[in-house]
Design brief:
With about 350 residues, this protein is of the alpha/beta class. About 35% of the residues lie in helices and about 15% in strands. The protein has 2 domains: about 160 residues, 3-Layer(aba) Sandwich (Rossmann fold); about 150 residues, Glycogen Phosphorylase B (Rossmann fold). Helix 7 packs across helix 9.
Length: about 350
């Protein structure tokens, strides 16, 4: 069967993006897309992201126009706006907040606003089990509304990266949210013979004095970042011991590329990292332990290769777009829109 229609609302820069529609050929649901593209006015209005607001409005209006069964949103703020417009416009579409993740849980009045709007969302999809508990408690939403699925992606495409020739043979660290680069830089200070390349945002470098063996690449494209990762010996994922999990995209990308990983031990990555099997875990903020783990992988090529291969196998089995599609199919079936 299916006469099911799904409207997918997301903030994307690629106009050809079709989420997981290719995994539903033939008799699967019909997908309609509403993309929040940046507008010039965004540079003048700082109080609110107008592209997001107008994109959410477009998504809800499309859902009403095509009588969509499900409106899928990507990201928590977009979910909140779509929930508001769905209520105002009396849309009958079920709202599914996919890729639901905050860099930090809102507090005060902002949390009250989110709690009010998110109460109108029918379901949520998160990329770690611990987030089910965190967001359920923070927004007073029954935990049963939250489903877990591993972050799914294809092996990342890469584009040529600008790296000085002398930098080849290095450890990579990539990403901006929830990172503890202070601990990594301190570890690098005691490992002067090992080079590090950090792919970061400008704010990640605030207050840091980089030693001569640490090189930073700031605000580069995703493909170039993935090329830096591909050429690295292995990756370090240094995480803050915060309440919200971060780093899933970088973690899974490294796994797909067959890179060994040293990651801060955290409930947010425990669904992915299996210590001494597909990665090495270290305690948050433990500089000496982190430095020892880096030295260990740097000198033990066989262990590095073994962990990288086990990570690749884990990602191939669990962290794919097909896995995300299976979870979404299960959601549709649970609502009576598809046969199981």
């Amino acid at each position: 069967m299916s006469n099911t229609t799904v409207v997918c609302c997301a903030e994307m820069t690629d106009p050809s993006w079709t989420w997981i529609a290719s995994h539903f050929p033939g008799v699967g649901p019909k997908f309609v897309f509403a993309i929040c593209r940046r507008r010039r006015i965004d540079s003048y209005v700082r109080a609110v992201n107008l592209s997001r607001v107008l994109g959410a409005l477009d998504g809800v209006m499309k859902a009403k126009r095509v009588k969509a069964d499900v409106l899928v949103t990507h990201g928590p703020a977009l979910a909140a706006w779509c929930a508001l417009f769905s209520w105002l416009l009396r849309s009958r579409s079920i709202v599914l907040a996919h890729s639901f993740n905050f860099a930090s849980v809102p507090r005060g009045l902002k949390r009250v606003v989110f709690r009010t709007l998110l109460a109108r969302v029918d379901g949520f999809v998160v990329f770690s089990n611990v987030e089910r508990e965190i967001y359920s408690e923070a927004f007073d939403i029954p935990i049963e509304r939250f489903d877990f699925v591993h972050w799914g992606m294809a092996p990342p495409a890469t584009t040529p990266a600008t790296i000085p020739a002398e930098d080849y043979g290095y450890v990579a660290a990539i990403g901006g949210n929830g990172r503890d680069y202070q601990a990594l830089v301190e570890a690098a200070n005691v490992l002067p013979d090992i080079k590090f390349v950090l792919v970061v945002r400008p704010e990640n470098l605030d207050g840091l004095k980089l030693p001569a063996n640490v090189f930073a690449r700031v605000d580069i494209g995703f493909g170039e970042a993935m090329e830096i990762l591909r050429l690295a010996r292995f990756m370090v994922l240094p995480l803050n011991p915060g309440e919200v999990p971060c780093g899933h995209i970088t973690l899974v990308a490294a796994m797909h590329l067959g890179k060994a990983i040293i990651a801060t031990s955290s409930p947010g990555v425990s669904d992915y990292v299996q210590n001494e099997k597909n990665a090495i875990s270290v305690k948050a903020g433990a500089v000496d332990e982190l430095a020892d783990a880096i030295r260990r992988l740097w000198v033990d090529g066989a262990l590095c290769e073994k962990l990288g291969e086990q990570g690749r196998l884990f990602a191939a089995a669990n962290c794919t777009e097909a896995g995300v599609a299976r979870q979404f199919r299960s959601f549709l079936a649970s609502r009576g829109f598809l046969d199981r």
